[in-house]
Design a protein that fits this description.
- The structure holds 3 protein chains of 3 kinds.
- Chain A is mainly α.
- Chain A is built from 11 helices and 1 strand.
- Chain A has one domain.
- In chain A, helix 3 runs parallel beside helix 9 and helix 9 crosses helix 10.
- The radius of gyration of chain A is 19 Å and the shape is globular.
- Chain B is mainly alpha-helical.
- Chain B has a domain of about 190 residues.
- Chain B has a 3-stranded antiparallel β-sheet. Chain B has a two-stranded antiparallel ribbon with strand order 1-2.
- In chain B, a hairpin with a 1-residue loop joins strand 4 and strand 5.
- Chain B is globular.
- Chain C is an all-alpha fold.
- Chain C has one domain.
- Chain C has a two-stranded antiparallel ribbon.
- Classes of the chains: A mainly alpha, B mainly alpha, C mainly alpha.
- At the B-C interface, helix 5, helix 6, helix 22 and helix 23 of B face helix 10, helix 12, helix 13, helix 14 and helix 15 of C.
- Strand 1 of chain A pairs parallel with strand 6 of chain B, so a sheet runs across the interface.
């Protein structure tokens, strides 16, 4: 029992550490790509790491006090890492025994909630506006995530993510899962806070939104949490909706998955570059339509396609 | 196990005595409060003992009074289901009485004589409702509860809004009670008894022989219970009544009283209706009603700027969750008992959890009201610095109600939504309902972030001087918040009793929820384990990862410095740049504008012609009397006073009489 | 039992009433559960014409129940009057020179109601019945102004229409059977019996202010409030319903058509009275219409009993006592308000609850009791009437159920609205309340509040003895 517990916690830490280490790299790649499309040279791929290092050493300016306020960045990053431990990333999720698909949905929303709390707590009107927008984005995007995952649960007859992945691997592609995947991908753009949906941060308008009062190590943690989240969600997308082909060779599968995740992130970055920012009401309308369309996935699933 | 019943009786007696005693001390505010609290304490101890006894299994029945000609007996019994709700009532009553001791200072104009004694009676009748097994006396306790709570809602006698709300509350719920009276009598017509067992048997017999009648009866019962529970559209009384009641009472209303409607629904659908195919239809109706309620309730809550009104709407929403769970459970009962046990356990657990967090929220709002006199969120801000305990408890309760793991709201929502999805695999409608429930839990979050963001967080105006509420008001909030955390991390503690109650009330043995391990997690079993939630593991992982993150944060050894908020280089008072609650999520609110239509009720005009027709005086009696008068006048005119004329009359009369006689003879 | 009192004899009146109450309670207690007692004496001058006893005392559960309504409420009325009819009354100051007249009529009223309650046959019933009419005429016109004289005259006129039918019924009965006994009705041939019953019913309608003869009662509100209370709660109008209860319970089958007619008219009355609620601005008139509706309830219960449901009959009879105490509470509250403020116009009253908490409590309890909110008195009787109706086969039961529940909800809503208007809300400046009402009035209210809760406890055992 104890050994099993130790093992799963070590695995969990491993998952988290991997996500933590890899996420700036992905961000770096995305930045490079963006620069390429802009016909710039761009920063080196390792630039995000340097950013983080620099921020961690900078002075920590706080506009509000209190234990809760002080601990929010750590909990934000912690919740994202928890999400990483709940999601199968190439292998089975280390914490799969502790949380199913519904738990994952709620944990995925947790970091957003904490960021909003930071925004409201920092007493800046920009932060409040940003938090308010963040909430609206969450409200429009979460249902899509939920629909997509529920389609999987419906097909696999289980709420466990691992079970859904296994079912996918065994049964091959289906129309409903494809639609669900596409919907998930569209939602990912907003979850990662990329254009045209970076409405909550909107640097040019409200100067980073909820994070306007964050600086130094606090900002570093929030940034890191953001990047890790996009990586983790990309893994979720790939694992649940596009897990094929499974070759059965573990290392090769892991590699394939990573490549697919990279492809997803590259697509996200491309969309990010070529689009202007939408207004919040436009974004909400857009996601409403996406949500309703993704109900089609549910319909297909019900008729067995 | 007659003991459990005895304890409940003792508890009710203590409360009634306490009500009278506290009336004696009504002149002195605080003393009256403490005396009442002492009595509620005693009664809660008794109820607690009853709960401990009742949780293990149904107690024996104890008959107090018999009305043979009505076929009714005042019979009390404690079974696991009522034990759970008894626990809620006792806990919430205890805490809100304690809270009210100091809180009632807030109402300088109104005497506590009309608060504490009535509150105690209200608690007594709630307790009575839960243990009664005879429908006539159930109704009597039920309506006593409405009656006493009406007086508590209209407590502030100079506030016109509270009068209106009270009136609306009482009329709507009384109408619902009359529906139940009708249903009970229709059943009684067939069975001749009001006992729950007789109702169950008669209802199941009627479903086979006269389905239309049976369904009408169920519908009437449903109306009655759903109105009290606050399911829309019958629950329209709720958003008016909750805000105007004193906060201790709001907490009791929302935490305990509304739950009794749920208790009634559980009894009706899980116990009265034996497992029959018609249950499926009612399950769908319940689930749809619940979903409608949670959708409209929570989205309307989002639009409120009055803290207590927001919470009242969110009560409607949370009751919607419970009702959804019940519906799914009722649907699954005939065919998928394991799923039914999941959904029902979720619903009942959510009732318990809702009692904890919603009462805590109302008490928090009350504390703010007590110190600032303000319920309007647009005018509040930055109270976190002054009221740390209230802020902390309200934050915990807000996160609980929004279903943020690992607080208690999540555990029950997880059960309900998982129940929906699992049932949706058999009947896809529930998938959609589950998705709506998921989405709405975010909307709940949004509305409570508004409360947190605009009332507690941010910066306060420099001229605001306020402080934390007295300790007797903090304690109830802290206890409730602690329960939110405890039941969130160890939902198994409660789920065991809930599972017991579900098994006892429905008679199903298949367990869908595996809550046997305290330290391990919860499994949902539908053939094989299909869903998992182990809060402890999750919390441990989160703690470790957050510590790790904190280590990273501190790794650079950065200096911490306090700075003023940056307003792009300008200087502003916090109040002038505050983002008001009414501006939160405006585009989103616009999208759901007309979702809660409200209209004014006009006193019906009585049609004038009918009024005239009914006024018998006008067209019948007065004219008749006048005519008589006139006739008499005419007769009197013949009396002219001249003897000759009288002689003439006599002669004429004689001739006429003779004529008639002759005619008759001939 | 009645003494003509001279001026300043208030205590004497109260003492007498108290003695009578004690007597009534003792009578009820001693005869509870026992076989019915019937005592009688013949009148000497009727020798040869009627060879049976015509005057007497007849105590059965129904009579004891009626006694328990008539006498205690009478006592409370006297008690209340001692402080209500004074110079301090802001609505109608009454000088002490009128006391003798007032208490004479009041005590006569009580005694004639006792005579009605314990009547062993129709003749005594009729004699005392007429006596109540006379007393009510005198008391309604007590203030001797134009309006009260008119009202008194109207009352006597309209109730006499009923009395004429009553007399007719008795005459027919006597001519055919040579008896005044209640049970003699059973020996009449079917067709004639229906007619006699119809005449009796008309008499009851007139007396109990049922449609179409209801209009005298609201006008009778010109009487001093204690009189109104007594008139409504216990005397006069209750005599009408008591007649029907007596007739129906006298041990023979009522033609179903007649019962249906009675039930139909009762329902009609209930709704007609309800329709008048909404236009009343005079508190006492509002209460008067509510009385009309509730007498309809009693008759409905009796009619249901006539259709064969003992339970309904018991409910109807129970309603006499439950409604008696509840309505008396309401009227005394209205009286207190008028006493203190000098007005009984609803729109002029607001926020009285703060200065008159006891009256407010009593009013709300009376109001909720009258509208049948559990656990207060009238709920029980209404419920028994309804369940009695449900015992009947066919669609009548559910039909009555639906109608009654609708009426209950509407009247409840309206009464509650009025109660809130008067007692809650910010006090109106016009209504200045100088002081609490006198102690005797408060004591009356407290006793009546207890009555509102306890009436079914007393009445239930008594009605259970009925119909066996």
């Amino acid at each position: 029992m104890t050994a099993w517990l130790m093992r799963s916690f070590l695995l969990c830490l491993l998952n988290a550490a991997l996500a933590l280490v890899l996420s700036p790299l992905c961000e770096g790649i995305m930045r490079k790509l963006r620069a390429a499309i802009h016909s710039r040279i761009g920063p080196p791929i390792t630039q995000p790491y340097w950013d983080l290092f620099k921020l961690l050493g900078k002075e920590d300016l706080r506009s509000a006090g209190g234990v809760v306020y002080a601990s929010l960045p750590a909990f934000t990053l912690g919740s994202v890492l928890l999400l990483a431990a709940l999601i199968p990333m190439g292998t089975a999720a280390p914490l799969a025994f502790a949380g199913d698909m519904i738990v994952v949905l709620y944990v995925a929303a947790m970091s957003g909630i904490l960021v909003m709390l930071v925004g409201f707590a920092s007493a800046s009107p920009y932060a409040s506006i940003g938090s308010s927008r963040e909430m609206m984005m969450l409200l429009s995007v979460e249902p899509i995530l939920a629909i997509a995952l529920v389609v999987g649960a419906f097909k696999a007859r289980t709420l466990a993510l691992g079970g859904i992945v296994n079912w996918q691997v065994q049964n091959g592609p289906s129309i409903s899962m494809a639609i669900g995947g596409v919907a998930f991908f569209l939602a990912l753009q907003a979850l990662a806070g990329k254009l045209p949906f970076d409405i909550a941060e909107a640097d040019q308008e409200i100067m980073g939104g909820p994070l306007v009062e964050q600086s130094g190590p606090r900002l570093a943690l929030f940034r890191w949490a953001m990047w890790t989240k996009q990586l983790v969600l990309a893994f979720l997308l790939v694992e649940v909706f596009f897990p094929w082909p499974r070759l059965g060779i573990h290392q090769l599968d892991l590699l394939m998955t990573s490549v697919k995740v990279l492809v997803v992130l590259v697509l996200v970055a491309v969309i990010d570059v070529v689009n202007p920012r939408l207004r919040i009401d436009q974004a909400m309308g857009y996601f409403l339509r996406v949500a309703f369309s993704s109900l089609a996935a549910l319909a297909f699933a019900v008729i067995g396609k | 196990m007659v003991d459990a019943v005895r304890y409940v009786e003792a508890s009710i007696v203590v409360l009634i005595v306490g009500s009278l005693v506290s009336l004696l001390f009504a002149r002195r505010r605080k003393l009256c409060g403490w005396v009442s609290f002492a009595f509620v304490c005693a009664s809660s101890v008794y109820t607690g003992l009853a709960v401990v006894g009742g949780c293990k299994g149904a107690s024996g029945e104890h008959t107090i009074l018999q009305l043979p000609q009505l076929g009714s007996r005042l019979t009390l019994r404690v079974d696991p289901l009522s034990a759970i709700f008894l626990a809620i009532v006792a806990l919430i009553a205890l805490l809100s009485t304690l809270y009210s001791v100091r809180y009632m200072e807030h109402y300088a104009h109104d005497k506590v004589a009309k608060f504490f004694p009535v509150l105690l009676l209200c608690v007594a009748s709630m307790t009575g409702v839960l243990v009664c097994t005879d429908f006539l006396f159930f109704l009597i306790f039920w309506e006593s509860m409405t009656l006493t709570s009406y007086f508590l809602v209209t407590f502030e006698s100079e506030n016109a809004a509270s009068q209106r709300a009270g009136l609306k509350y009482f009329i709507i719920t009384h109408g619902a009670t009359l529906c139940m009276v009708a249903a009970a009598l229709l059943l009684w017509r067939t069975s001749g008894s009001f006992h729950f067992d007789a109702i169950r048997q008669t209802l199941s017999a009627l479903l086979n022989t006269r389905p239309f009648l049976a369904h009408s009866i169920i519908f009437l019962f449903f109306l009655g219970f759903a109105t009290k529970a606050g399911i829309l559209p019958m629950g329209d009384w709720l958003p008016d009544a909750h805000p105007v009641a004193p906060s201790g009472m709001s907490a009791t209303l929302s935490g305990a009283l509304v739950k009794l409607g749920i208790y009634g629904l559980v009894r009706l659908f899980c116990s009265f209706l034996v497992v029959s195919p018609s249950l499926r239809m009612w399950g769908i109706i319940l689930a749809l009603a619940g979903t409608g309620s949670l959708f409209v309730g929570n989205l309307t809550a989002l639009r409120q700027t009055d803290t207590k009104r927001l919470m009242a709407f969110s009560t409607i929403g949370q009751i919607g969750y419970i009702c959804l769970g019940l519906g799914v459970g009722a649907y699954c009962l005939p065919m998928y008992p394991a799923l039914a046990s999941i959904a029902l356990a979720g619903a009942i657990l959510h009732a318990v959890n809702h009692a904890c967090f919603k009462s805590c929220l109302f008490l928090g709002a009350g504390s703010v009201l007590y110190r600032t006199g303000q319920r309007d969120m647009d005018k509040l801000g930055g109270l976190a610095g002054f009221m740390p305990y209230t802020t902390g408890t309200t934050t915990i309760a807000s996160l609980s109600i929004a279903g943020v793991p690992p607080f208690n709201g999540f555990a029950s929502k997880w059960l309900i939504i998982a129940g929906c999805v699992l049932a949706g695999m058999r009947f896809p409608l529930f998938l959609v309902l589950g998705l709506i429930a998921l989405f709405i839990s975010l909307a709940t979050l949004a509305s409570f972030l508004t409360v947190l963001g605009s009332v507690f967080l941010g910066k306060a105006d420099p001229d605001i001087r306020t402080r934390e509420v007295p300790i007797s008001m903090i304690v109830p909030q802290v206890v409730l918040a602690a329960l939110c955390v405890l039941l969130g991390i160890f939902p198994q503690l409660m789920l065991r009793f809930v599972g017991h109650a579900v098994a006892d009330v429905t008679g199903i043995t298949a367990a869908g929820v595996d809550a046997s391990r305290i330290w391990g997690g919860l499994f949902l079993i539908d053939g094989s384990p299909v869903a998992f939630w182990s809060p402890l593991a999750m919390l441990a992982a989160l703690a470790i990862l957050a510590l790790l993150s904190y280590a990273i944060q501190r790794a650079g050894g950065a200096q911490v410095r306090s700075v003023p908020v940056w307003y792009c280089g300008e200087e502003h008072a916090p109040a002038t740049v505050r983002y008001p609650a009414s501006s939160f999520y405006l585009p989103f609110k616009h999208a759901f504008q007309g979702i809660y239509p409200s209209g004014k009720v006009h006193v019906p005009r009585f049609p004038a012609p009918l009024r005239r027709a009914l006024d018998f005086d006008q067209w019948l009696y007065v004219p008749a009397v006048r005519a008589m008068d006139a006739a008499a006048d005419r007769v009197s005119r013949t009396h002219v006073g001249i003897p000759q004329i009288y002689l003439l009359w006599i002669v004429v009369g004689a001739i006429v009489v003779t004529g008639i006689l002759l005619w008759v003879k001939g | 039992m009645c003494v003509a009192l001279k001026r300043g004899a208030r205590p004497a009146a109260a003492v007498i009433a108290a003695i009578v109450t004690g007597l009534a309670v003792w009578l009820t207690w001693s005869t509870y559960g026992a076989s019915y007692t019937k005592m009688g004496g013949a009148l000497p001058w009727l020798h040869g014409i009627v060879d049976r006893p015509v005057l007497g005392i007849f105590i059965d559960p129904l009579a004891s129940l009626m006694l328990l309504v008539v006498v205690p409420i009478g006592l409370l009325t006297v008690l209340y009057s001692t402080s209500y009819l004074t110079e301090k009354n802001r609505e109608h100051p009454v000088g002490s020179e009128h006391y003798g007249r007032y208490y004479f009529w009041l005590l006569l009223f009580i005694s004639s109601m006792v005579g009605v309650a314990i009547a062993p046959n129709f003749l005594q019933f009729f004699v005392f019945w007429e006596l109540t009419t006379l007393c009510s005429w005198a008391l309604i016109s007590f203030h001797q102004n134009e309006r009260s004289l008119r009202a008194g005259f109207k009352a006597i006129l309209m109730t006499h229409v009923g009395s004429a039918f009553f007399l007719l019924a008795i005459l027919i009965l006597f001519v055919r059977t040579n008896s005044f006994d209640f049970s003699a009705l059973g020996t009449l041939p079917d067709g004639l019996r229906s007619w006699v019953l119809l005449f009796l019913m008309l008499a009851a309608w007139a007396k109990a202010a049922q449609v179409p003869l209801q209009t005298w009662l609201p006008d009778a509100m010109e009487a001093p409030t204690p009189i109104s209370a007594y008139l409504h709660a216990a005397a006069m109008v209750k005599a009408g319903v008591y007649l029907m209860a007596r007739t129906v319970s006298s041990g023979w089958a009522i033609p179903p058509g007649m019962s249906l007619l009675m039930a139909g008219m009762a329902l009609l009355t209930i709704f007609v009275a309800l329709s008048f609620y909404f236009v009343q601005d005079d508190l006492k008139r509002l209460l008067a219409y509510s009385t009309i509706a509730h007498l309809g309830y009693v008759l409905l219960g009796v009619a249901v009993g006539g259709l064969g449901s003992t339970l309904g009959f018991q409910g109807g009879v129970l309603h006499i006592i439950c409604h008696g105490y509840s309505k008396a509470t309401l009227f005394f509250c209205a009286g207190t308000i008028a006493y203190v403020t000098g007005t009984r116009t609803i729109s002029e009253l607001r926020g009285l609850g703060r200065s008159m908490p006891l009256t407010a409590t009593a009013f709300f309890i009376g109001l909720l009791s009258v509208t049948g909110v559990p656990p207060l008195a009238c709920f029980w009787s209404k419920f028994m009437i309804l369940s009695g109706a449900m015992r009947l086969s066919g669609p009548i039961g559910p039909l009555i159920l639906v109608f009654i529940l609708c009426e209950t909800l509407i009247s409840f809503g309206w009464m509650l609205y009025i109660g809130q208007k008067i007692f809650l809300g910010a006090p109106l400046a016009v209504v200045q309340v100088p002081s609490d009402p006198p102690r005797a009035m408060n004591a009356t209210l407290i006793l009546l509040m207890i009555g509102c809760v306890a009436a079914p406890l007393v009445g239930m055992p008594l009605v259970q003895l009925m119909g066996k």
